[in-house]
Amino acid sequence: MATRRILGIETSCDETSAAVLRVEDGRASVASLVILSQDVHRVFGGVVPELASREHLRTIGPVVERALAEAGAGLTQLDGIAVTAGPGLIGALLVGLMYGKGLGYWLGKPLVGVHHLEGHLFAPTLEDLSLEPPFIALLVSGGHTLLLDVEAWGRYHLLGETLDDAAGEAFDKVGTLLGLDYPAGAQVERLAREGRPGRFDFPRPMLRDGYAFSFSGLKTAVLRAVRASADLAADRADLARAFQDAIIAVLVEKTARAVAERGRATAMVGGGVACNRALATALAERLDGRARVVVASPRLNTDNAAMIAAAGAWRLEQGERSGLDLEPFASGPLPGIVGNQVRAG
Ligand code: KG4
Ligand code: ZN
User: Fold this and answer.
1) Torsion of CA 310, 38, 174, 148, to 10 degrees
2) Which CATH architecture has domain 130-295?
3) For a Cys staple, 162 with which of 144, 145, 182, 273, CB 3.0–4.6 Å?
4) How far is it, in rounded angstroms, from Cα 219 to Cα 227?
5) How far away, in angstroms, is 299 Cα from ligand 1 center?
6) Half-sphere exposure of 117 (CA within 13 A, CB side)
7) pLDDT in 10s for each residue of the chain, 345 residues
8) What is the 210 CA–ligand 2 centroid distance (Å)?
9) Does 3.30.479.30 match the CATH number of domain 4-123+300-338?
10) Are 255 and 283 in contact (CB under 8 A)?
């Protein structure tokens, strides 16, 4: 089978990213990946939608050109375009979507809109060629926390999701309480490494309670402890440690239970929070001898266009095409999701 090249575009939040995938015999490999993280939001403690759109608009052209150059591919050598259609910030998504549509129309090449979370699901396949359904997937990002039984590509059984904050959001909010810059996940992890375990005891919400998650009570518990602290500078690392231990305990418990109850031999963790080494290590220890744990490298777990191209390549292979009427969406379930708790945003 001939080599095909798929261009991926991701602009759902505050990363402007483009990637070229080389697909051969159904196997995809990254020919290039460019990720431009927007710095402008740092001082605001969160992503400012209008600023995000403007930054995407300013940089999308050069980012795509750079991805093509690094892959040594000309525009006419592309065989398809995959672009994130949602969920995300509408104005931000529109920039990537318009760019992808324009390019696809002009080149006469097929375009497919990709659900951002399906991108996160496909990310590890770019490094671990043996990752194939069925497997349990824990998707933990700044906007989502989902536990899925991936029965097949495109068929996702929703086991549970968060009732309030997403896992990454909890990391970010706790980071703010501890005086860290947004996004704080990686800094909280670093701080927690210096912390002593057990000095603070935080709740492990809904630990044995089905597959749903809730993190707002945990965040409030950290807030109370921060307010009660007589010397926050001295307590910060221990607070970060206790928070991280609590959230990881919940994520690991539910994922391990899903692996056992659904009889799966593989568990994957995806999304930005999957960059957390302590989470991957705790899950691997818990499932040792029972299931394999698959986690992509940090570059593929934070928002990037290679994962969008990977999911898009699969959808294009299924014959799926998006028209020029493809619209961005702020929230919406994964395509092919089944289960009785469908609320996924
Ligand atoms: O998937 P992602 O890049 O963007 C969304 O789709 O939301 O995830 C970003 C989230 C942020 O909340 C960030 O703080 C968190 O992932 N994150 C981490 C770590 N690295 C990034 N959380 C915990 N530990 C980390 N090492
Ligand atoms: Zn994401």
Assistant:
1) -10
2) 2-Layer Sandwich (3.30)
3) 145
4) 12
5) 11
6) 31
7) 689 999 999 999 999 999 999 999 889 999 999 999 999 998 888 899 999 999 999 999 999 999 999 999 999 999 999 999 999 999 999 999 999 999 999 999 999 999 999 999 999 999 998 999 999 999 999 999 999 999 999 999 999 999 999 999 999 999 999 999 999 999 999 999 999 999 999 999 999 989 999 999 999 999 999 999 999 999 999 999 999 999 999 999 999 999 999 999 999 999 999 999 999 999 999 999 999 999 999 999 999 999 999 999 999 999 999 999 999 999 999 999 997 554 433
8) 25
9) no
10) yes
pTM: 0.96
Ligand 1 centre to CA of 142 (Å) is 5
Mutate which of 219, 302, 308 for ligand 1? The one with the most ligand atoms within 8 Å of its CB, which is 302
Give yes or no for residue 160 CB within 6 A of ligand 1. Answer: no
Give CA–CA dist 22/29, Å, rounded: 5
Q: Is the CB of 303 under 6 A from ligand 1?
A: yes
Looking at the CA of 15, name the nearest ligand: 1
Nearest to 302 by CA among 215, 145, 185: 185
For ligand 1, whether the C-beta of 118 sits within 6 Å is: no
Could you tell me the two tokens for 155? 């068929």
CA-nearest residue for atom 8, ligand 1, is 272
Q: Which ligand is nearest to the CA of 166?
A: 1
Domain with CATH 3.30.420.40 in the chain: 4-123+300-338, 130-295
